[in-house]
Design goal:
Layout: H1 2-9, H2 19-22, H3 26-37, H4 43-49, E1 61-62, E2 70-71, H5 93-127, H6 139-145, E3 154-157, E4 160-163, H7 166-179, H8 196-205, H9 212-222, H10 231-261, E5 267-271, E6 281-286, H11 290-300, H12 303-311, E7 317-322, H13 323-333, E8 337-339, H14 344-349, E9 355-358, H15 367-371, E10 377-380, E11 393-394, H16 402-416, E12 431-435, H17 439-451, H18 455-462, E13 468-472, H19 484-495, E14 498-502, H20 504-512, H21 520-524, H22 527-536, E15 541-543, H23 550-563, E16 575-579, H24 585-596, E17 600-603, H25 613-627, E18 631-633, H26 637-655, H27 668-675
Parallel strand pairs: 6-7, 6-9, 7-8, 9-10, 10-11, 13-14, 13-16, 14-15, 16-17, 17-18
Antiparallel strand pairs: 1-2, 3-4, 5-12
Helix pairs in contact: 5-7, 5-9, 5-10, 5-24, 5-25, 6-7, 6-10, 9-10, 10-23, 10-24, 11-13, 11-16, 19-26
The structure holds FE(4)-NI(1)-S(5) cluster (NFS).
FE(4)-NI(1)-S(5) cluster is lined by residues 288, 323-324, 341, 362, 474-475, 504-505, 547, 584, 586.
Length: 676
């Protein structure tokens, strides 16, 4: 019976990918070869069999009404005469591409923000003391966040300023946070955290988000058949919705997660499929929301669960993670990373995965087919993310009995340990890493306890040891060689003295490659960055967490501005953004809020805009005039790095710091000469 299912569900792929060329990572290649030998199809094979639609890829297929889909590919003679392409309603290629782009932003913003809402609801339950399983772990962060949500942290009694009760503050912060999703009036409170000139640009352009949900709804309305028919106006709403993600839903998610689960500080861990263990129960956690995974981490450390695992013949419980849930439990607990987005099927193909627990986002439905061939239990946990296959176990997770649910899930995994086939193959590849950086730890590491500011970072950018900053983020994409662009790009940047801030699957890729160790500085960096990293003992690539933690990049950049010496707006900083192997709609939302926050942002692979050159130009040229940041596309990772470095150099020049300036000790004579 199991054999029959295997035949039907995970039938041998018709065309197979070449394992030697799909990835730069040896563990991935080994596991793909094993999958193919076993006749199990994976995403790599499907990418060979199924080619992308040539019109969809250009962004010019409109399926927003039943008169379509209307397909408007770029004609060969485009540019000679008038562009007469139109859909049945008359929608132009620009309108169609802009509508599709805005819908991607809406979906991406919704995904990050709904995740944020979920966390905010748990926070409210904790603040109301409706659950014993979640408590406020980081009071300092709560106090730091409160004023940004209009909550006082002190109270005046008889002329004396007293600290307010923490429980009271927590309740008000939770209510104020949740209000950001649906308030009737005003604008997002966090917009005020941005540097003033940036905020003023948003005012001028009319793109300040009112509340998070409303901006997603309005995107859907304006992209409905027959509504907004001006790509520039559509992109205004796209921008407003993206800002509701970056300075709203995602930023709230990060802040509240820090309050509930603790603000990350640097810690050591490991990465890649080789973190799984032969003699322990392997539980792989995959998805995005840390609400459940935090509880699984806590449950896995209880004597009850450890004893239970031992009673079943295992030496312990080995947790590891895939995608951004992985980054969340890495940054706070040091739980090792099992792999990136494209390795999710491969974790099961080891034969050592006793349970894969998934929540929301970036989860392949094919996991259900792959587990048919192994003993692995696939457990869905979120009411909004189930799978149709009947071999999937659904255990709905509820914050009101979180620990109970987490233990139930772990027990399933432990009970399954004995069902492993003899044929287990855990690739012998893993790397050490130091992760868990953030706004606070950068301040500490680069400012020191004495100063505790971003002074040292700014100083080293000004004196040229650090040429600039790069935020490199985002996914893997099966249309490109796994991790190649991530790693080539990051190595090229650090070689040119650019300090890299990473999140998401780029962070995982860098961890797998050993770039997240302080020792990497001596191997890969240019002399300036090497000196800084070695002096303060940090890696040249700082892992800031999951994709919602891109908000940490925005706030770190804001701190750079506050300290001074590098301009007054985020677009003044010698910095650039990148998503070299993007694939998800969330990446488009991130890209747009980076751009609208003043960041020059380069995407690898392609953008779904090539069928509408005028709209494409709006993104890649006009945006800079409006917001100071713009989109760019470059699939070649070296050229991609060069574009970012050229932009960084341009900004250095504008700031007048293009020639490295060493500090000189001046005597009175020198000073008098200067003043004269
Ligand atoms: Ni970001 Fe995280 Fe990875 Fe891409 Fe998916 S895990 S939220 S979307 S694939 S980086």
């Amino acid at each position: 019976m199991a054999e029959d299912k295997k035949e039907v569900k995970a039938a041998k792929p018709k065309k197979m990918a070449n394992p030697d060329t799909v990835s730069i990572d040896a563990a991935t290649r080994e596991m793909l070869a094993r999958a193919q030998k076993m006749g199990i199809e994976t995403v790599f094979d499907r990418a060979v069999t199924m080619k992308p639609c040539n019109i969809g890829i250009q962004g010019t297929c409109c399926k927003n009404c039943a008169m379509g889909p209307c397909r408007l590919p770029l004609p060969k003679d485009y540019g000679e005469g008038k562009d007469e392409r139109k859909g049945l309603c008359g929608a132009t290629a620009n309108t169609i591409a802009a509508r599709n782009f805005v819908r991607m932003i809406a979906s991406g913003s919704a995904a990050h923000s709904d995740h944020g809402r979920g966390v905010a609801e748990v926070f409210l339950a904790a603040a109301r003391k409706e659950t014993d399983d979640y408590k406020i772990k980081d009071v300092q962060k709560l106090i730091a966040v409160a004023p940004h949500l209009g909550v006082d942290t002190t109270v005046e009694v008889d002329g004396e300023v007293l600290d307010r009760d923490v429980d009271e503050i927590a309740l008000e912060v939770a209510e104020a946070a949740l209000n950001e999703w649906g308030k009737a009036e005003g604008e997002l409170l966090y917009l005020q955290r941005a540097p003033k000139p940036l905020y003023e640009k948003w005012v001028k352009e009319g793109v300040r988000p009112r509340n998070i949900d409303r901006e997603v709804v309005e995107c859907m309305h304006r992209t409905h058949m027959g509504v907004d028919q001006d790509y520039k106006n559509l992109m205004k709403q796209g921008t407003r919705c993206a800002l509701a993600d970056g300075w709203g839903g995602a930023m709230l998610a990060t802040d509240i997660q820090d309050i509930l689960f603790g603000t990350p500080y640097p810690l050591q861990s490991e990465a890649n499929l080789g973190v799984m263990k032969h003699d322990q129960v392997n539980v792989v956690i995959h998805g995005h929301e840390p609400v459940l995974s935090e509880m699984i981490v806590a449950a896995s450390q209880t004597t009850e669960m450890l004893d239970y695992a031992k009673s079943k013949g295992a030496k312990g419980i080995q947790l590891s993670g895939i995608c951004c849930t992985a980054n969340e439990i890495l940054e706070r607990h040091g739980v090792p990373l099992c792999g990136t987005f494209l390795q999710q099927e491969l974790a099961i193909i080891t034969g050592a995965c006793d349970a894969m627990v998934v929540d929301v986002q970036c989860i392949f439905q094919n996991l259900a087919n792959v587990v048919e061939c192994f003993h692995t239990k696939l457990i869905t946990t979120h009411p909004i993310a189930k799978m149709e296959q009947d071999n999937v176990v659904h255990i709905e997770f509820d914050e009101h009995h979180a620990m109970e649910d987490a233990k139930r899930i772990l027990k399933i995994a432990i009970d399954n340990f004995g069902n492993r086939d003899a044929d287990v193959m855990i690739p012998n590849h893993k790397a050490s890493q130091v992760a868990g950086f953030g706004v606070e730890s950068i301040e500490y590491h680069l400012g020191g306890t004495f100063r505790g500011t971003y002074y040292t970072l700014n100083d080293n950018i000004i004196n040229g040891r650090i040429r600039g900053l790069a935020g490199v983020v985002g996914c893997n994409n099966a249309r490109t060689k796994h991790n190649e662009a991530h790693i080539t790009l990051v190595k090229e940047l650090v070689k040119n003295d650019v300090l890299v801030l990473t999140t998401g699957c780029n962070g995982i890729a860098c961890a797998m490659e050993g770039l997240l160790t302080p020792e990497a500085a001596g191997v890969y960096c240019g002399p300036g960055l090497k000196e800084v990293c070695e002096t303060v003992g940090i890696p040249p690539v700082l892992h800031l967490g999951s994709c919602v933690d891109n908000s940490r990049i925005l706030l770190a950049a804001t701190e750079v501005i506050k300290v001074g010496g590098l301009g007054t707006d985020l677009c003044d900083i010698p910095a650039a953004g990148s998503a070299p192997e993007w694939m998800s709609e969330k990446a488009i939302s991130i890209g747009q809020y980076f751009v609208a926050s003043g960041v020059y942002t380069v995407f690898g692979y392609l953008l779904p805009t090539s069928g509408a050159p005028v709209f494409h130009k709006h993104l890649t040229e006009d945006m800079e005039k409006i917001y100071g940041g713009m989109w760019d596309v470059e699939p070649d990772p070296i050229k991609h790095a060069k574009l970012m470095i050229a932009h960084i150099d341009k900004k250095r020049k504008e700031l007048g710091i293009d020639k490295a300036r060493e500090r000189v000790l001046m005597d009175m004579d020198d000073r008098q000469k200067l003043e004269a």
